[in-house]
Amino acid sequence: MRSLRIGYCLCLLLCLSGLTGPTALAEDADDVNIFGYFQTEFQHERPDDYAKRSSFLLQHLNVFLQKDLTRSWTSFINFEFTNSFSANKNWGTLDVQEAWVRYRYDNRFNLKLGLQIPIFNGLNEIKNRTPILPYIIRPIVYESSLEEIIPIDQYVPNRAYVQAYGFLPYEGFKFDYALYMGNSPNINSDPEEGQTGVDTTDTFLFGGRVGFRQEEFKFGFSMTYDRSNLLSDILRENFGEIGVGRELGRYRLGGDLSYHSGGLFLEGELISVRYDNEGPTVDLDLDFYYATVGYEFDERWSAYVSYWKTRERSFVNLEDAQTFNPISLDQVLELEIPTVGLSCRINDRVTVKAQWARVWQEIESTGLAYDITSSSHYFALAISAFF
User: Fold this and answer.
1) Phi and psi dihedrals of 213, rounded to 5?
2) Dihedral of CA 174/180/184/185: which sign?
3) β-strands 264-275, 160-170 pairing
């Protein structure tokens, strides 16, 4: 069934490509515009405590379809393929990340309706534009190729359905704003439970960002609120089917800052995820930050140094609950990743990159009475292209 749905999607892409080839585009400037980005890499990982490995990988491919409907209305679709996607071999993922129409009044007001990546901090909306980003592996909570390992959807909102945004100029300054809403994270993925892809609750995601810009200096603050069934997932993952935990209100708080001066560029972000209604028996928190300092030597060459850190706390104590198996879990997972990189812009459409990182991981778990510490060195070469 999964392969059949993917086949329909690929057929649609091929049909649209055939309808909008070079000849059609030349004849009708208002026809569908097809473009995209992809990044292919060679990666070598050398862990301290197990065997090293090397691999080539189509890290991701984004295919965009854009059409101007009128002077004020634009439509846009974004398909993302990750990790050398193959339906037959069960490799990687295929996602329809965006499918929206936008009404543009002017720079002060835009309205997007449909599936979209909402504005959150500085990187979320542009994370798939790899030819203009210096990284091979992006700051870890934005790296879609690692979604099977990192709980990306918990750190940043990846889907909204209604968004108003724009900027207001004032005496050389610009004030940015964005307000959006979408589904809660409680989406059905089991056909036996009914229609998939729909929210199983009557709650919503609400979020937004306010920011300030002056020339090459920019900063902003972001926030979202929704209600999550993460507690149920944790109980099910660690203790099996023992019933359903209560939904918890979830806040994401974010801050971002960037600055460019000559060849120097600085950027960084903070993300803090907090759950309310926790009480003394539940504590679920996530934190992330990254900071990057880089320099563009000329129009082609640039280099950077960056540091990323995540921290996830899962504390559940239901020993007093009326259950057959009393539950106690106290676990902290930390990742620290210093990294350096170099990129060379071959032309306006092709960029070659290199990146080294040291990945240090520590898991502390009181409930299960074990601690794990591991580290590895990661090196990658990649080519990133715009087509």
Assistant:
1) -135, 140
2) negative
3) unpaired
- Token pair in block for residue 275: 């759950």
Query: How far is 155 from 286, CA to CA, in rounded Å?
Result: 7
Long-range pairs for 296-302 at CB < 8 Å and ≥24 separation?
A: 296/263, 296/264, 296/265, 297/263, 299/345, 300/344, 300/345, 300/346, 301/342, 301/343, 301/344, 301/345, 302/134, 302/263, 302/342, 302/343
- Which of 60, 108, 90, 80 is closest to 13 using CA atoms? 80
Partnered with residue 286 across adjacent β-strands are: 273, 312
Residue 192 parent element (H or E): none
**pLDDT tens across 142-197, in order?**
999 998 888 899 999 999 999 999 999 988 899 999 999 999 988 888 888 889 99
- pLDDT tens digits along 302-324: 999 999 999 998 777 666 544 44
Q: Is this prediction's pTM over 0.85?
A: yes
Q: What does the alpha-carbon distance between residue 128 and residue 267 come to, in Å, rounded to a whole number? A: 17
8 A C-beta contact, residue 161 and residue 114: yes
pLDDT of 54 > 50? The answer is yes
Angstrom distance (rounded) from CA 101 to CA 73: 7
Cβ(355)–Cβ(341) under 8 Å? yes
Q: What is the mean pLDDT of the chain?
A: 86
